[in-house]
């Protein structure tokens, strides 16, 4: 049978894809690695079909490997006779807990069939919420900015895990970037905040992102207007 890694999207229950919803409803058990993904999954799956897996928040490599092996063993055993799902916020292939499970299954249970069902990533939801258009020909970098980190270089960046917004903002503005923040966007849990003021986000929150654009960056955006023809005129 098959293990489906299903992206739930950024947090709103109705941003789950049609395919994701169909597979959630048909899976024998739906494993959730955390409280928030479980909350979203419960909009589509009865509680008795939700399974919990332990993925500890630690940097101890031995403890992490033990937890991943135990989780993979449980999932593989269930998938031996029925389809199961593993859900994650965002997309399963973008900074997701599912990556740990997939690699461990590949290493210790290669007989298990895996299929990934994409979800709306937090990064694309974030640019939508801010009204940021990443036009054709534009480069956009994705960077982690935990604990006050402020990576620089690209003209446009989406930063995630911005757990110290004031420190990140100070460093980026000194480096010549305009910065805007969003917290818990398209999420049903917690307060949604969109702001240019990092002091509004002084309290740390894992689900905070930032969009940083270098000051004065030039744009060459195609429009429906033509050379020599004023807007509203005729040729």
Automatic annotation (TrEMBL):
Any one GO molecular function term: cobalt-factor II C20-methyltransferase activity
Pfam assignment, any one: TP_methylase
Enzyme class (EC, first level): transferase
InterPro entries recorded: 4pyrrol_Mease (IPR000878), 4pyrrol_Methylase_sf (IPR035996), 4pyrrole_Mease_sub1 (IPR014777), CobI/CbiL (IPR012382), Uropor_MeTrfase_CS (IPR003043)
Keyword Ribosomal protein: no
Keywords: Cobalamin biosynthesis, Methyltransferase, Transferase
Tetrapyrrole methylase domain span: 2-196
Enzyme Commission number, as recorded: 2.1.1.151
Pathway(s) the chain acts in: Cofactor biosynthesis; adenosylcobalamin biosynthesis
GO-annotated biological processes: cobalamin biosynthetic process; methylation
UniProt record similarity statement: Belongs to the precorrin methyltransferase family.
Protein name from the UniProt record: Cobalt-precorrin-2 C(20)-methyltransferase
Lineage: Archaea, Methanobacteriati, Methanobacteriota, Stenosarchaea group, Halobacteria
């Amino acid at each position: 049978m098959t293990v489906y890694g299903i992206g739930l999207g950024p947090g709103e229950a109705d941003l789950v894809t049609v395919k994701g919803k169909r597979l959630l409803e048909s899976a024998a058990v739906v494993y959730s690695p955390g409280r928030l993904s479980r909350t979203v999954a419960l909009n589509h799956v009865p509680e008795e079909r939700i399974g919990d897996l332990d993925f500890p928040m630690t940097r101890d490599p031995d403890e992490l490997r033990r937890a991943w092996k135990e989780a993979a063993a449980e999932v593989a055993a269930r998938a031996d006779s029925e389809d199961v799902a593993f859900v994650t916020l965002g997309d399963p292939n973008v900074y997701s807990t599912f990556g740990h499970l997939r690699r461990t299954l590949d290493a210790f249970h290669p007989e298990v069939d895996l299929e990934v069902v994409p979800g709306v990533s937090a990064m694309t939801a974030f640019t939508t919420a801010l009204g940021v258009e990443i036009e054709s020909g534009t480069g956009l970098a994705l960077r982690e900015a935990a604990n006050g980190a402020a990576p620089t270089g690209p003209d446009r960046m989406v930063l995630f895990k911005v757990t110290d917004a004031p420190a990140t903002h100070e460093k980026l503005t000194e480096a010549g970037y305009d910065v805007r923040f969003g917290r818990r966007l398209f999420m049903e849990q917690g307060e949604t905040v969109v702001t240019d003021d990092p002091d509004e986000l002084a309290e740390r929150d894992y689900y905070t992102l930032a969009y940083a654009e270098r000051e004065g960056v030039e744009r060459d955006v195609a429009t429906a207007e033509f050379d020599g023809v004023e807007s509203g005129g005729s040729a």
